[in-house]
Design a protein that fits this description.
The structure is a homotetramer. With about 200 residues, the first copy, chain A, is mainly α. Chain A has two domains: about 15-65, Arc Repressor Mutant, subunit A; about 75-195, no CATH class. In chain A, about 65% of the residues lie in helices and about 0% in strands. In chain A, helix 7 (about 120-140) packs across helix 8 (about 150-165). Chain A is elongated, with a radius of gyration of 19 Å. Chains in contact: A-B, A-C, A-D, B-C, C-D. The structure holds a DNA duplex (21 and 21 nucleotides).
Amino acid sequence: MTQHPTAEERRPANDGPKAAARNRAALIAAAREIYAEHGLGAPLSGIARRAGVGQGVLYRHFPDRAAVANAVLEENVREVEQAAAASGATLSGVLGVLTWHLTESAAFIGLLHADRTDDRTDGVHAHASALSERVARSLRGHLTGGHRLGGSDDLMLAVAMVSGAVTGPTREERERRALAAWRLLGVEVGAVRPFAG
Amino acid sequence: MTQHPTAEERRPANDGPKAAARNRAALIAAAREIYAEHGLGAPLSGIARRAGVGQGVLYRHFPDRAAVANAVLEENVREVEQAAAASGATLSGVLGVLTWHLTESAAFIGLLHADRTDDRTDGVHAHASALSERVARSLRGHLTGGHRLGGSDDLMLAVAMVSGAVTGPTREERERRALAAWRLLGVEVGAVRPFAG
Amino acid sequence: MTQHPTAEERRPANDGPKAAARNRAALIAAAREIYAEHGLGAPLSGIARRAGVGQGVLYRHFPDRAAVANAVLEENVREVEQAAAASGATLSGVLGVLTWHLTESAAFIGLLHADRTDDRTDGVHAHASALSERVARSLRGHLTGGHRLGGSDDLMLAVAMVSGAVTGPTREERERRALAAWRLLGVEVGAVRPFAG
Amino acid sequence: MTQHPTAEERRPANDGPKAAARNRAALIAAAREIYAEHGLGAPLSGIARRAGVGQGVLYRHFPDRAAVANAVLEENVREVEQAAAASGATLSGVLGVLTWHLTESAAFIGLLHADRTDDRTDGVHAHASALSERVARSLRGHLTGGHRLGGSDDLMLAVAMVSGAVTGPTREERERRALAAWRLLGVEVGAVRPFAG
DNA sequence: AATGAATGAGGATTCATTCAT
DNA sequence: GATGAATGAATCCTCATTCAT
């Protein structure tokens, strides 16, 4: 019963407390990749392994499966917010950034559209509306009427619709379909690319 | 898909000769319900239990997880095909039936939009394009140009987009959003209801 | 993600449904031994291994840790009840059987006295009072006043006290201490042995 | 053991020179509380957290789980010894102090009665007999014959028996049962309270 | 001397799948 | 044909213990 008695061959490793921030970032990056490859329901152990840390570290930083996904999404949303807040930002420009994240991040899509009834992702969806609202707020400030959408409600519906169209094995294919979707909606979209200052 | 009789009645006792067919139907109905409640990744044991049969029966009828989901989808697609083939069918009418299935069947949505990278649903998606093509074919025959979509490719993209918009806890909410989505696309949709010969 | 894909080398085993009862009995017997050797908190996996079954079987028969312990205790209590119900039963005779179980079954003692605050055994203790009441009922019918105890409350307190005295590495030592405890209480106890018809 | 100041005050900031002694005391107090709430098997991390120190400090002061429990028990035993050594001490008075510790300290009870086979507490039990002997020695000097017990062996058996009776969710309930147990044994017990010089 | 992050083995639990009856 | 028990690998999660800072 003595828990974990094996204390013979201790491996070295332990880069001290400063590694914490680095590990957290590595976990989020690993999660993004794993999600893209295996979906939101992928084993957490795989994320830890890809990040090069023990499983305990993952649990130290994220109490549960939902927290990991939320951390990944948080980054996506933050980039959209930054793009919206940048000086000279336009609706089409922000939508370009948003579209880039839709085509790039399986978690982002998964979050919005993956089977909402999957019990394993319940916790994720619980936070989704809050994140969604932040995206809406970012877009709202740039609504100018140069398109067929009536308001930010229409705009968020349109975002959902575009994300529904984003399928395909490669990012290029997904981008092609995303742009076709925006075209059907009569909305102009700027360069599809991540936000960079 | 509540049109299909819910298989709650426990098998009486002995099995008649056509028990096999009855069991298959019960399994599909049970799977539809389970998928709606717990997602495509739900335990197969729960489907067998809900159908009132042993787990062995499930495996007799369906070799694997994908086969179960495909059987459920097959029914959805067949109804759309029947609606399209009915005399007097119009595009908006068929889209109404299609929309009904989108709002009703979590599996149908899940199939088209759930995280395609989820390994558990790989086998399902393998058949998805075939089913999707059958839906496209059904719609193609009714394309008449009275809308902004250029062809059946555009139409299938639109279907994907609408399915992306279909979210929400109740069927009513999902229908509301689906109709809003079609409106944004400028496509007229008939009564949202299952096909009934 | 596909769960448990390894379906290559299938091992034979599977004695059919009739093994169920045998397995349940084997699990209880194994649990009794394991509890005696390692305490109520011992790994369930060890119990399954000792019983010669897979871990899943344990969970099929017992939903959780508490259910296993309760099943073990249930047997102890049942023997006491049977001893009490036997024709010609006397209080000292029933106490002899009860004492035998106290000295023999680590789980029985553990249940009544092990660290009540141990979170792992919470569920066990939840049922303990019900079992304890059954023991009290069994003894009650034989209260005759030939001793210093006032009623079944006193008697149950005395049982608890004796169980507190039952310590030691061997059954013989535990029996010696149990008898000394009864003597201090001025209660006559019959032969310390399991009930046998 | 609430007589010991609960170590809730977080260390201010820097550590003075005698921080070590303060930390040790805080750890023991924290352990006592944790043991009372969660049993002897509670996570060590929780003890360190409650004491307001890092986990490393716990290991600096106590090499293993057993050392922590032994330190807690050491305090209980020491109080009994002090009560016995006080001028004017009587057997019933010392038993009152002993009884107070039995009703107050889950670790004390747990130590004496918790499932001795629980591998997690092996190390603790290894020291138990030594501590137990110290208690016996303390009582021995006050044996006067005014009761039914024959010697210190009987007395220690009686202590074990009383501890077996000490159950219940509140200290009051535990005290009530302890007193009833002593009464059944025909032993007079003084005021149930901690020793205070 | 203290901190608290990291490791990683251990134990709990769940299910896909098989198969004797 | 149907049943449902059994298997056991996979995954989740927890903690004892170490150690860089």
